[in-house]
Automatic annotation (TrEMBL), chain B:
Pfam families: COX3 (PF00510). It is a multi-pass membrane protein. GO terms for cellular component: plasma membrane. The keyword Translocase does not apply. The chain crosses the membrane at residues 30-53, 65-88, 100-119, 152-173, 194-215. InterPro entries: Cyt_c/ubiquinol_Oxase_su3, Cyt_c_oxidase-like_su3, Cyt_c_oxidase_su3-like_sf, Cyt_c_oxidase_su3_a-hlx. GO terms for biological process: aerobic electron transport chain. Belongs to the cytochrome c oxidase subunit 3 family. This is Cytochrome oxidase subunit III. It is found in: Cell membrane; Membrane. The keyword Kinase does not apply. Its main location: membrane.
Automatic annotation (TrEMBL), chain C:
InterPro entries: Cyt_c_oxase-like_su1_dom, Cyt_c_oxase-like_su1_sf, Cyt_C_Oxase_1, Cyt_c_Oxase_su1_BS. It comes from Methylobacterium nonmethylotrophicum. Residues 32-543 form the Cytochrome oxidase subunit I profile domain. The lineage of its organism: Bacteria, Pseudomonadati, Pseudomonadota, Alphaproteobacteria, Hyphomicrobiales. The chain crosses the membrane at residues 48-72, 92-119, 131-151, 171-197, 218-244, 264-284, 296-316, 328-346, 367-391, 397-425, 437-464, 484-505. This is Cytochrome c oxidase subunit I. It is a multi-pass membrane protein.
Length: 99, 217, 558
């Protein structure tokens, strides 16, 4: 498919970051799956949540290349999560204080 | 394969520059993804509230989900993100044939995800884990609130599957266009814009998998 | 540039036409004539008119059902309609007015038409998407109308569970599908505006040179994008509940109906600002033009728009004080709701300060604008009453609430819509309407509105609940007064529909800038050329550069 060694070198230069991203995601997924399958300690969900958050951050920053985008696009990438936080926080104010 | 075709974007008449046009397209897709995020956030919030109000029932229901199929499907989607990134990288180089192959691989992995999902639904059906079917008895009858979580699982995965199906359809249509000569000279940024959507469906699944399968075990 | 020379009737002060930009090519109305050129247009101005025609039709449906509701309430014993019919009437009124008139009213028409003109762009960023949004809107409208034709819906516009899921035997699902689809049309419009305002501004058109109309539409669009999907998913869950009994909102299985209300109001409270913010933008254009005075506190008005759009996401629970949410949540939502008063008041004070010592011309748009300011103050202040937990216990779900939100929705949005319609009608059509008729209608609407809705404050305070057509006989006088007011209001609505349409064919030709107003939209011909600007638009150095400059203390150099 990619004939010359020159082309292979160019290809690898461009594919290194996506491949490393995928590897990082797979490793984090492995951690989460292992934790979910074994349930090693009571509040393991906290760790699982953090790992899932890291995976999301990895996809945003590397797969979706937010890192390289201008500040406006970065703002748009963040603002949705801020609003999700508003939705969750204000709703939880109700549910966590119900008797 | 040696040397790429020329790469660029053709200016639409209402824009002043190509840069402006590309910027608008990227921003437009991000604005759309904002709405997608809030859409799924409503479902994740519902899952969280169910977990808070009925912890035991939700755990009982979550243990019946096909954890390993979900995990394999996550691997499949991470793979499809990789091939999509590959298509984007090759489109920037102007390597049209390689790009088309990567796009087809992405569509294939997306289809594999749906196939596994379909098998999962089938297995659920077999195990009487479809409480929304009125004429089929439900397995966990002693725990009525567990129905809510299982039903929500179908709404959430169904909505995600719909997004994936739409993504595959658009991807195949675009692959057809993209295999014609001159595509990359006129519409290279379409690949990038679609890539954002594809990665985002992946992102939603990355959240959905722990929310539904892992955290509640 | 001085103003005030009346040359051609009262409406045509100083027809100042910067001829360098007025072209000789056909304008957008006459560029093509086929039906196809309208239904497949990608010109933002034509799409705006498609929307204008559609929402006017829905306004008529909503107004007729409102009239029937008022008719039913003339007698206290509920003999005019059956209970079912009455429930369906107020539901159709609410659903149609909220989702098919108020929400698209100003953004989809004026916003579509004016934003590219105001920022000096040739079109919106995604013209095809813009057309698609109209088709999506009409598809949603189709489903909703189907539900009405089949027999209607009786849940109220809020679709509260479990009434909408377990008890209503009416056509809830088609109505829900319709409202869900219409949400996507809002999202697409908002997406287009956000991207357009960010990327399509003419060279030199910096953020603080933009008209406030553009700022408020930007804020509105953010709400479209961030709030609409949440109601979409809430309605999808409702549809699934009705179709498959998924139970998430059903207490019988342990579901929580209040969760639906959380998801519903996360959208529907910010939706109030989807309706109000564009109106504020319209008023911020009209007031300086008819005071011939620079808008007072430009930056504060701009920031207040963004402030309102953000604060509004923290207050939705004030709709749920008596519905079973926790006391702590009620207190939090109540306190936060008071914060909304701050940016609202900033706007009102700045408009009044703009009027102060201006060279006032009380033409039709200005009459509407002044009516708006007064009614918005009343509606806003009664909102503070309702945000107070103790008073809310007393007046929750009474006519006090009905009066409050009609002061905001009708006194605010509809008056701003009509004011804007008269202000930009010459720009849309190239014709002037008859000024005397405009003023008569504006006054009629103001009087009719207050006679209709002020008695409802008293009724609600006395304890008359909303959504009932059987009520104690001692409330009859105030109800008859309210219904009488609604007939005046109806006349006030019918007049503009006649003389504005009449003006399209028989009105005097409008100059490019009949009001001597500032802003790029007034530098192009009326009606504008098909591609908006024939030469590169020149962004003004200062927004609202009117002859009378406000003296603002402090260091305000924009």
């Amino acid at each position: 498919m990619f004939g010359t060694s020159e082309e292979r070198r160019i290809l690898w230069r461009h594919m290194r970051e996506p491949v490393l991203t995928a590897c990082a995601l797979l490793i984090m997924l492995g951690v989460n799956v292992a934790l979910g399958a074994t349930l090693p300690f009571p509040h393991v969900w906290i760790v699982e949540l953090i790992v899932a958050g890291l995976m999301v951050a990895t996809i945003l920053a590397f797969s979706m290349e937010v890192r390289r985008e201008p500040p406006l696009v970065r703002l748009f990438a963040c603002i949705g999560f801020v609003w999700v936080a508003i939705l969750f926080a204000m709703t939880l104010v109700d549910y966590l204080s119900r008797r | 394969m040696s040397g790429g075709t020329s790469v660029g974007v053709r200016l639409a008449s209402h824009f002043a520059t190509v840069e402006q046009q590309k910027h608008a397209a990227v921003l437009g897709m991000w604005a759309w993804l904002l709405t997608e995020l809030l859409l799924f956030a409503g479902l994740f919030l519902t899952a969280l509230i169910l977990r808070l109000t009925h912890p035991e029932a939700v755990q009982a229901a979550a243990r019946h989900l096909k954890f390993w199929i979900g995990a394999v499907n996550t691997v499949v989607l991470i793979g499809s993100s990789l091939t999509m990134s590959g298509a984007i990288q090759l489109s920037r180089l102007g390597w049209q044939r390689g790009m088309v192959r990567f796009m087809l691989a992405t569509a294939a992995l997306g289809t594999l995800f749906l196939a596994l999902k379909g098998y999962e639904y089938y297995a659920d059906y077999h195990e009487h884990m479809m409480p929304f079917l009125s004429d089929r008895p439900y397995a966990l009858t002693d725990s009525p609130p567990s129905r809510l979580f299982v039903n929500l699982y179908y709404v959430a995965t169904g909505l995600h599957g719909l997004h994936l199906l739409t993504g595959i359809a658009i991807l195949l249509a675009m692959t057809r266009q993209a295999s014609r000569p001159g595509f990359l000279a006129a519409h290279q940024n379409r690949i990038e814009i679609f890539g954002l959507y594809w990665h985002f469906i992946d992102l939603i699944w990355i959240v959905a998998f722990p929310t539904l399968y892992v955290l509640n075990r | 540039m001085t103003s005030g020379t009346i040359t051609d009737g009262p409406a045509l002060r100083d027809p100042h036409t910067p001829d360098s930009r007025i072209g000789h090519g056909p304008d957008y109305l006459h560029a093509e004539h086929t039906l196809r050129s309208w239904f497949f247009t990608t010109d933002h101005k034509r799409i705006a008119l498609l929307y204008l025609a559609s929402i006017t039709a829905f306004f008529v449906i909503g107004a007729v059902t409102a009239g029937l509701v008022r008719l039913a309430l003339v007698v206290p014993d509920g003999q005019v309609f059956t209970n079912d019919t009455y429930n369906k009437l107020f539901t159709i009124h609410g659903v149609v007015m909220v989702w098919f008139f108020l929400i698209p009213s100003i953004p989809a028409t004026f916003g579509n038409f004016l934003i590219p003109l105001m920022i000096g762009a040739r079109d919106l960023a995604f013209p095809k998407l813009n057309l698609a949004s109209w088709y999506v809107f009409m598809t949603g409208a189709f489903f909703t109308l189907v539900s009405v034709v089949l027999g209607g819906v009786d849940t109220g516009w809020t679709f509260y569970t479990p009434l909408s899921t377990a008890f209503s035997n009416t056509w809830v699902v088609p109505a829900l599908i319709g409202v869900t689809i219409v949400g996507f049309s809002s999202i697409l419009t908002g997406l287009n505006f956000v991207v357009t305002i960010h990327t399509m501004r003419a060279p030199g058109m910096t953020w603080f040179r933009l008209p406030i109309f553009v700022w408020t539409h930007y804020a509105t669009s953010l709400i479209f994008l961030l709030a609409t999907p949440v109601i979409t998913v809430a309605l999808v869950l409702l549809i699934a509940e009705r179709a498959f009994h998924i139970g998430v909102f059903d207490p019988a299985y342990g579901g929580d109906p209040v969760l639906f209300q959380h998801l519903f109001w996360f959208y529907s409270h910010p939706a109030v600002y989807i309706m109000v913010l564009p109106g504020m933008g319209v008023i911020s254009e009209i007031v300086p033009a008819f005071a011939q005075k620079k808008l007072f506190g430009y930056r504060f008005v701009a920031y207040a728009a963004i402030g309102l759009a953000s604060v509004t996401f923290f207050v939705w629970g004030h709709h749920m004080f008596v519905n079973g949410q926790s006391d702590l949540a009620s207190v939090a939502f109540s306190v936060l709701s008071f914060a909304v008063a701050v940016p609202s008041a900033v706007k009102v004070y700045n408009w009044t300060a703009t009027i102060h010592k201006g060279s006032l011309k009380l033409d039709t748009p200005m009459l509407y604008a002044m009516g708006y300011i007064g009614l918005f103050v009343l509606g806003g202040l009664t909102g503070l009453y309702l945000a107070t937990l103790a008073i809310n216990q007393h007046v929750h779900a009474t006519y006090f609430v009905v009066a409050h939100f009609h002061y905001i929705m009708v006194g605010g949005t509809v008056l701003a819509f009509l004011g804007g319609l008269h202000f930009w009608w010459p720009k849309f059509t190239g014709r002037m309407y008859i000024e005397a008729w405009g003023r008569i209608s504006a006054v009629l609407i103001f009087i009719g509105f207050n006679v209709t809705f002020f008695p409802q404050f008293i009724l609600g305070y006395l304890g008359m609940p909303r959504r009932y057509h059987v009520y104690p006989a001692e409330f009859q006088f105030l109800n008859i007064l309210s219904s009488a007011g609604s007939t005046i209001l109806a006349v006030g609505y019918i007049f503009p529909m006649i003389y504005l349409v009449y003006a399209i064919w028989f009105g005097k030709r409008a100059p490019a800038n009949p009001w001597d107003a500032r802003g790029l939209e007034w530098t192009v011909a009326s009606p504008p050329p098909a591609h908006n600007f024939l030469t590169e638009p020149q962004a003004p150095k200062v927004p609202y550069d009117y002859p009378i400059q406000a003296r603002e203390t402090g260091r305000q150099h924009s």
